[in-house]
Amino acid sequence: MEIKAVRLAFIFLTAAVTAQLQQQEDEEDGGGWFSASDVRSQDEGRCNIDVLDGSSLSYQQFMERYAYSRPVILRGLTDNTKFRLLCSKSGLLREYGAHRVRLSTANTYSYRKVDVPFQEYVDEFLRPQSADALGSDTLYFFGDNNFTEWQSLFEHYESPPYVLPLTSGAYSFGIAGPGTGVPFHWHGPGYSEVIYGRKRWFLYPPDQEPHFHPNRTTLSWVTETYPYLPEDEAPLECTIRPGEVLYFPDRWWHATLNLDTSVFISTFLG
Ligand SMILES: O=C(O)CCC(=O)C(=O)O
């Protein structure tokens, strides 16, 4: 009896240590999402958006200075350490690998949708963006989550607390490879947070429509259009990292570029 108890204790201890090691590895290497073969862009670009410590901006200041007028990046506003651990590659595949996810084409008017098991998305679709592919031929996992299936994950996400009056937040969760992103479009206000990876954002106010082709990827806009923009057509831009959330006001044009394989979540206020 005693030997059995010792054996059981040993098995539990080994499992706990293995889980701890896996967790440490996940934290250190970007949740297991970055692979050595990934070409990760080092070009984070400039940052001409206000970046503030969340604790230094009250809700009233947020409402007066940003809510209806310009984007802002807030650091340390929430602590999503637990959610980050749940979003490691091994954790998500274990829980959701068999669930079907809906992919949308990465163009401005994204009409085509494709449903695949999450495991297949990770194995077959999650890769660096090829420079010459059209947005309409690039499938992106973002924007169409099955909330019943993913609820047990989303309930651990701590969303940004500064909500606009008469709105509530709706989540949109995604994972995408380096160089991917969504080209310019606009909609209501919201937040974007990266859980793993880095995401470069480009924004223009509602009355300054950027020059872009709705069927080209953000990557092609960044390499072919962005370098030649006159200074008065330069976007607001910044790269966000885990622990930072970007707020964009209503109807602001925006485009994104994932610099790494990224896990991210938007909170749309509507
Ligand atoms: O995170 C992304 O790549 C897309 C985000 C976006 O376009 C949005 O939140 O509206």
UniProtKB/TrEMBL annotation:
InterPro entries: Cupin_8, JmjC_dom, JMJD6_ArgDemeth/LysHydrox. It comes from the Eukaryota. This is JmjC domain-containing protein. Residues 1-19 form the signal peptide. SUPFAM superfamilies: Clavaminate synthase-like. GO terms for cellular component: nucleus. Keywords: Signal. It holds the Pfam family Cupin_8. GO terms for molecular function: cis-regulatory region sequence-specific DNA binding. Residues 148-270 form the JmjC domain.
